[in-house]
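Friendly challenge for the regulars: who can give me the structure tokens for this chain first? No prize, just bragging rights.
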Amino acid sequence: MKLFIEPVDVWLFRDGRPFNAGADHRARSLFPPYPSVMQGVIRSHHLVVRGIDLAKPKAIEDEVGTATDYRGLRMRGPFVARKENGKVVRYFPAPLDTVFREGKKLYPLTPRKIPGGIKTSAPTPYLLWDDGEPEKPKGRMWLSEETLHQYLDGQPVEPTLERDLFLRENRLGIGLDDATRTTAESESGVGLLYEAEFIRVKDDVGLEVEFEGLPGLNEWPEHGVLRMGGEGHGGRYERSNSQEWRAIPDPLPTRFKIYFATPTYFEDGWRPTTWDRFFAGEVKLQAAAVGRYQSIGGFDVAAGRQKTAHRYVPAGSVYYFACQGEVKPQKTLVNDAITDAGAEIGFGQVIIKEVRDV
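First reply, four minutes later:
Bragging rights claimed.
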């Protein structure tokens, strides 16, 4: 099932940092939210659709599993999406192996052998660079799915600026004492002030999420409203008609690159301890463009405390590989994902493309 979800009002999807008035005064918002947030939205609404008594933990577990056991749920997304000429089009963060030039275009970088005499700490035989002068873009950039595949084919592309898809709004609030419902104060008697960042999407922009494996999905209405994000703001959903997700090539090209469409977790930081878990055959990492890590944790409502945060490789990161002989994706891959954790719920979603000029 694929859903396109538009906000009823603004949305608030906090990042993984602890937030309460007096500790950190500013709540930053993510868009799109992490897959861990969206799986909670989907499973919670599924309980409502199925009429499960939320006061019965065993009934909930039997229907959708637990916080660590997703049962049969398999999810892809969420992705920023927009209705264009009657079709839902997904949008992705600009790849990190590109440079911005001419005031309007992104140019793919080419992996090059490290010249003799140059010392580097890079653990790969190639680096990503060219001889041109990059420009600073005016805001974060996104690529439509069609434009992303043009980039993957090595073509310069014109990105969509974030402000053309959604805006960020800052709002102030005061901390409240739960017992008296009056303004909470610090130990020094000063009122607690906080700031929250909300997301306001442009017309026809929302989120797309694809999922399967829950019992009774045929009971979901074609249209509906669900709660999602901070402050329980709503989202109107309908079935999405976006193009089908492209499977991992089998066998893999002799040389290929991986674009990460969602954040991914690796046990060894920016890479796994071994690539054998994902590829049947020998591959060698040639180059990589990796963004600053994202700390993903959250709040455990049942336990009343912050969850342990882990560092994830951000969406938009790109890895280049060369195969030694025939290489195929492992048959044990969950959800066609390349990640050491969270494959079932959408982390580590990738798009893989052949590279001919390395």
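The chain has a mean pLDDT of 85. Residues 255-354 form a domain with the Immunoglobulin-like fold (CATH 2.60.40.4350). Your move, everyone else.
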